[in-house]
Amino acid sequence: MRLFVAIELPDEITVQLMLLSDELRRRVEQRAPAARLTWLARDRLHLTVRFIGEVDDWHADAIRDRLVPPLDTPAFDLTFERAGA
Questions:
Q1: How many CA atoms lie within 13 A of 18 on its CB side?
Q2: What is the radius of gyration, based on Cα positions, of the chain?
Q3: SS3 at position 85
Q4: N or C terminus of the chain: which is more exposed, having fewer CB within 10 Å?
Q5: Is the bond preceding residue 74 a cis peptide, omega within 30 degrees?
Q6: 9-57 residue pLDDT tens
Q7: How far apart are CA 24 and CA 30, in angstroms?
Q8: Three-state DSSP state, 6
Q9: What letter would DSSP give residue 15?
């Protein structure tokens, strides 16, 4: 199982990210129509904090137990400057 720690994004941010994604998709279709890309649905958008990688079920359960309930972290400012792939 592939695991990662992520921050769920508020709706107002995912809306803006989907607008950017739609624009990028249009540009790809115009400039590279044969490109095979997978575009994420809005409900799958998140900010990965730490990619853990492949782990077996035992380790996955142990990691999940340490992260539930979600960490209580104060709000912070975050600025997106550019997109990458």
A1: 13
A2: 16
A3: coil
A4: C
A5: no
A6: 889 999 999 999 999 999 999 999 999 999 999 999 999 999 999 999 9
A7: 10
A8: strand
A9: H
